[in-house]
Amino acid sequence: MKKDNIDYFFELFEKCSIPKLFSEVNSLENDKSITNPNYDNSLEKNPDKMYSVFFIPNYLRPIIKSDIFVIKKVEQFFKGYAIFLDGFASADAYIKHRFRSNAKGIRRRIKRLESCFDISYKTYYGAIEGEDYEFLMNCLEKMLVRRFEQRNDVSQSLLRWDYYKQMYFSLINEKKASMFVAFEDNQPIIVSLNHHFQNRLFSAISSYDIDYSKFSLGSVEIYKKIDWLIENNHKSYEMGMGDLSYKREWCNHIYNFEHQIIYPKKSIVGFFKGNIEYTKVKLKEFVFKLTYVRYKKYKTKRKTQSIAFTEEHQVSPIEEAVYDKGLPTIDYNCEEHKGLRKIVFNFLYTSIDNVINVKVLEVSKKEKTYLIVGRSKMQKVTLIK
Question: Among candidates 228, 115, 251, which has minimal Cα distance to 178?
Answer without folding.
Answer: 228
